[in-house]
Amino acid sequence: MVGVNRVFAAQLAGLPVFGPDGESIGKARDLVVGLRIDRQPPRVLGLVVELVTRRRIFVPMLRVTSIEPNAIILATGSVSLRQFHQRANEVLVVGELIDARVTVGGTAAVLVDAAMEPARTRDWRMTRVAVRERTGRLARRGKVQVLRWDEVVGLSVSEVAGQPQGAQHLVAIFETMRAADVASALHDLPLKRRYEVAEALDDERLADVIEELSEDDQKDLLAHLDDERAADVLEAMNPDDAADLLAELPERDKERLLELMEPEESAPVKRLLEYSFDTAGGLMTPEPVVLAPDATVAEALAHVRNADLTPALASMVFVCRPPTATPTGRYLGCAHIQRLLREPPSDLVAGVLDTDLPTLPPGAKLGEVTRYFAAYNLVCGPVVDEADHLLGAVTVDDVLDHLLPDNWRETGLTHA
Question: Which CDD domains match (predicted)?
Answer without folding.
Answer: CBS_pair_Mg_transporter
